[in-house]
Amino acid sequence: MSHLLAMLAAAAALWVAVYAQLRIARYTASPSSALLTRAILLLVGCGFGYVAGIGYGDDELMRGLAMIIGFGAVHLPAAFILFIKRERGAGKS
Predict the structure, then answer these.
(1) C-alpha–C-alpha distance, residues 40 and 22, integer Å
(2) pTM (2 d.p.)
(3) Is residue 16 part of a domain?
(4) Distance between the two ends of the chain, CA-based, in angstroms?
(5) Is residue 69 in some structural domain?
(6) Fewer CB atoms inside 10 Å of the end CB: C or N, the chain?
């Protein structure tokens, strides 16, 4: 994967992660549930990103970009669900 393509993928993944983190509170019934959901996504995202970055050896840039892409990939299902809830006009659950 070229550096430019990886940078674009990392930017998209970061946008997905930010979107999910910002929308969680809007569609979660209690603040403690929102905090727990955010914490789980952050921890799993960091772990997945770390594992994704391990395979790039000495290329620091690609390792960092792979970590960001992995972090965003964990947030993608949550972001998609939150987007659908927004489009339907759903309330907190």
Answers:
(1) 14
(2) 0.86
(3) no
(4) 40
(5) yes
(6) C
